[in-house]
Amino acid sequence: MDILSQIVADTVETIKKRKQTLSLNDLQARAGASSHPHHSLKAKVAADPKPHIIAEFKRKSPSRPNINMNADPVAVAQTYEAGGASAMSVLTEPDYFAGAPEDLQAVRRAVAMPLLRKDFVVDPYQLFEAKAWGADLVLLIARILEPAQLAELNAAAQELGLETLCEVHNREELAVVGTTPVDFLGVNCRDLKKFSTNLDQLIDIVDDLPDHAVWVAESGIGGREDVARLEAVGYRAFLVGEHLMRNTDPGAEIGNLRGNPA
Ligand SMILES: O=C(O)c1ccccc1NCC(=O)[C@H](O)[C@H](O)COP(=O)(O)O
């Protein structure tokens, strides 16, 4: 079983348990009562031609067992926001990424930038969770969804007022997306078998990316030159995790990535 299949199998079990603790009906009521205003990344991207950094909070990952295990999500969020991040990605998956719903909820109370619930969404229940916890965007990974399932989750998320970031790794997965009106189309250049990243793949695929979504470059971005190279071929937003989580001054580095060195 590959790593994504393992994560998805465990996620399905986690959702089963959560449904026993909080029914879908009760969760829907909570999501409906959520008083968080919507913070739109789409609007930010439309208003500003400069590169947009989606700064990620990630303690660890399958490829990196210890990135920054003791990091405080609220302190990191405040630094990211002050540094000019357009949005923040918060891992909520517990077993492989040491994330938690409480991280997203705490960050929501502390900052006003758009928040991405970064998880392995396979069930509409997770969309209501995302809404109830204060997210503005959700990740939908093409590799783990059937085309009809992706279309349904995308429509359900947008109906709830969540923007969608659909992630692909290659051309084959673009077929899963088809004409589904996702808001953001992310290309992730991490090879999930070797755990290596190769930014050239993000460049090779651009001729086949659909125009209906904003393009997001994901994984392995390590400096201003990387952003500039990817921006030159049409990417408008950049999901950056490890590079910022290991940086001693992530706020300044976000400015640098955007082409505004301190
Ligand atoms: O990073 C992993 O090891 C990983 C393994 C399995 C599924 C997803 C994985 N990573 C998630 C991501 O896509 C990254 O967190 C994100 O693109 C940021 O990447 P980076 O800037 O390289 O931390």
TrEMBL record:
Q: Which Pfam families match?
A: IGPS (PF00218)
Q: Which InterPro entries match?
A: Aldolase_TIM, Indole-3-glycerol_P_synth, Indole-3-glycerol_P_synth_dom, Indole-3-GlycerolPSynthase_CS, RibuloseP-bd_barrel
Q: Which UniProt keywords apply?
A: Amino-acid biosynthesis, Aromatic amino acid biosynthesis, Decarboxylase, Lyase, Tryptophan biosynthesis
Pathway assignment reads: Amino-acid biosynthesis; L-tryptophan biosynthesis; L-tryptophan from chorismate: step 4/5
Q: Does the keyword Lyase apply?
A: yes
In terms of Gene3D superfamilies, this protein maps to:
Aldolase class I (3.20.20.70)
Native organism is: Acanthopleuribacter pedis
In this chain the Indole-3-glycerol phosphate synthase domain maps to 4-256
Which PROSITE patterns does the record cross-reference, listed alphabetically? IGPS
Please state what the protein is called.
Indole-3-glycerol phosphate synthase
The protein's annotated catalytic reaction(s) are: 1-(2-carboxyphenylamino)-1-deoxy-D-ribulose 5-phosphate + H(+) = (1S,2R)-1-C-(indol-3-yl)glycerol 3-phosphate + CO2 + H2O
Top-level taxon in the UniProt lineage = Bacteria
Give the GO molecular function terms.
indole-3-glycerol-phosphate synthase activity; phosphoribosylanthranilate isomerase activity
Recorded E.C. number(s)? 4.1.1.48
GO biological process: one example: L-tryptophan biosynthetic process
Hey, which family's this protein in? Answer: Belongs to the TrpC family.
